[in-house]
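Cross-posted from the bioinformatics board.
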Amino acid sequence: MILALFGPPGSGKGTQAKQLIETLGIPQLSTGDMLREAIKQDLPLGIKAKEFMNKGQLVPDALMIELIKERMQEKDCEKGFLLDGFPRTVAQAEALDEMLSGQGLKLDHVVSFQVKERELVDRLAGRIVCSSCGASYHVKTKPPKAEGICDICGGTVIKRDDDKADVVQARLDTFMEATAPVEEYYHKKGRLKKIDALGNESEVLGRILGIINIEA
Ligand code: AMP
């Protein structure tokens, strides 16, 4: 199965992606995680991407398309994969369709996470993440059991640079301008599945599994 999670920053894509890959047995291709890893390793891609990310802007399409194209060729993607954070522009969506159809494949479902902007700002303002495994927490609603330490892997829990207040609004504005049209692109193709992304993690997971016809 090839699945894409679509939604604004803070809508819970990353959290649901982690649950879904367990259930479906396919890898998570998170372009945000790939870029953060490239930054950590001081790779040329990371150095270029950081400039855009820290301003809440999108990394140029050509870089992102190349990144995902290479990742899709890896062996663990043979049985399908879950895209998290890609595509984020209509150009990326078109390139993805082309890459997949070139291999005789297609995107099965695009799950669009629906959350009100006010809720997103609250979530992003309080979000903290594990710098090792990427697990997501919230200072008020879901703090780690021991302050600053990831419950899952024991890594250090930090605030992402781009979750700081001045960048959050820019990221939401970028979503509205460049990314929201991607929803229309998939709607027209009849592949868009909208879900209400408010509620606890297992409720939202149940809705996603229901809409893609998988029994929990
Ligand atoms: P995320 O972790 O998905 O919120 O991504 C963090 C940041 O990485 C975004 O705000 C963008 O700057 C960049 N990024 C991630 N995925 C993409 C993409 N598909 N296209 C362009 N920029 C991206």
